[in-house]
């Protein structure tokens, strides 16, 4: 059977995925995609502006379209349909026959008929091509305005703000997100969005766009006011793309949309329509979950099974510019006889409302703005018609101390309860997968696809997983190793609270056995973070990995590399000459690192103290390249020299590097400081990234390069130096306190419950009330800094450990170098074998 | 691997104080590199172990610089390069038995550490 799918968006691709799972049915599928790239994740489109690439957003698994029975045609727009002949003509000129045709054409952005809307630098927000055009324009703009204060409009405002534009939102209605939230919710939402630096204009009817004075456009409003802006994005709602269906004579709704029945069939039984272009029961669905449901409905029929689409719940929870917004069921209380409970906290900017049935027993709907933590519970209560507790108001009231919130334990949910609506995963499916061995969230996502689309259900999925594991008697074990029944975070807490000063003490009180190569360095790092004693002090020395023990980086042949600190990548000519002279004297291989300093390789343990002495004499100190500690603060040259720079990035980098040098952390950390938005220091790929703005410094955190690159996220903007340093103090110490061992900030951030908002709450808003403590912990580390190399060479007890043999001054005879491109390198085993022949002679002559 | 070569001879290496508790040192004994470890649970429980210093996994003479620990009942050192564990009593490599090394007898007399290689 030949199937043609018109449109390769999220819903079109879901259909193809469902069909492709079963190649046995002899389906021959052709997908027509008018865009130059296959399906991508439109739900997370705004992440394109916070660093995700088009590839990151792709929904297509590598190799997916290599299978025999599915053909994807890119840049191929369906232009006409001959229903009698059952053929589709494509923009490429081809005419393709079909047995079944599926419309998955989605929607297009509605642009209000405003005079001047065709001007240059006016955009819509729909495809990656649109985004690329916006990005190009954003780079040369100062202000940007979004027309439309709905869900997409606010997403789009976030995108403009992420590009560093002064951002405005213009809305026709009296409040933001008028469809999903009520007046009270809209008020809180507006305050929150405005706090983030976005200017909101409501009840503004744009009548014309003309040339502006303080921007390339001037938007004129019906009330006589105007707004000047450099770019405009229209996001005033969507309309179903039904033009081709209309031309083909299919039945459409009065206000558009391809009419479908419960089987998702159009007025032509050979043609289906799914997703945003389809009109079911007089209803259009602009969310991905119902679209996926329709895709599954059609797929099952094409595979020969009966299936029906039964409508969808339009509840949503999302995060708009970090503001939680949720809308459940009958949010506006339109059901006759319904009653509402409302709670509003204007100080914390939280608004919550419950709509309950006339009898008071059932939940009909709700609105949450500012905090939507109860969304999962409330949604399940509504969907499963679970009877409300005696006093339903406590469901949304803040918890007072000691009183537990009347929750709905996940145990109360029936097995059929749908937990992930995007991928139609029930509680029963999750439990079955947990029983089959998926006992961490990653494995569970893999096994069931739950939480892999919008991600909104992940907290609930986690709860179900934990409850099921508990039921199965499976321990959720995060112990560092067999010697301590604690996680790193718990060990940190014990060390701190009990004032534990040594590994021996900790092991005696809380551990067993001798310890091992996992817990020893972990505890060493915790002790160093807390008390900052010399790492080679007698009771700490035996805990250190060889890198920390020898204060240098071990290489494959057992020699070490040495990296002197060059804060901010700044080095004097004399300093550079001194480093060169040391390298030359000891015959070290010399290489420039990615962190803007110099690495000297091939040093033997007995040479290290001598090398350091010479470096110290030339004014250098340890670069901590060997430690799970601050490595470097990379910088661009900044406003001092660069004609584009707006901030002194080198000066700040030097200050930051000198402040945090020596701080022991769960894993290595790297900083970057850029002097302007051109970002030459690549600060957004670092654990801590700072970028100069006209008004101060923007602070980015939790970025990473390496194996799994992650774009850093904006933690706070336009900070003065003092606030910046304070936030970094808090951020780093919070990471030190709570991360797992060897967990980079990027992974830590991914696993942080509550995500970026929680981090902002802790670091910026001091939600936990620990900011002063974190700062004082950091102050202690900063004040007690000592150069470890200097300490090692001047302390005779330590220094005497730097020899290869305890009973001889000879060098390690297994270390052999050969020359390559004018420098040394370790010999390969074959080369070494050839050289080893001469070694006994050397040994005998000594 | 040296068992069938020379009769073993006791050689004094260093004093026990020369080895920081729960670390190792490398000794040169008849041209061989020997890793000697001082394992110290508490004051009264001190033991000294010796195995070859050369790590067959990484092809580098580094075992004396590994971290000492216990895995179940075994007392082990973790190679600092690829973290293979070697049983200090037998030289057995836990992860890859083909990388096992020789173990040597040790004794401590009047604070002096002796190894039989």
Automatic annotation (TrEMBL), chain B:
Keywords: 2Fe-2S, Iron, Iron-sulfur, Metal-binding, Nitrate assimilation, Oxidoreductase. One of its GO terms (molecular function) is metal ion binding. This is Nitrite reductase (NADH) small subunit. Residues 11-115 form the Rieske domain. Gene3D superfamilies: Rieske [2Fe-2S] iron-sulphur domain (2.102.10.10). One of its GO terms (biological process) is nitrate assimilation. The keyword Iron applies. The keyword Metal-binding applies. SUPFAM superfamilies: ISP domain.
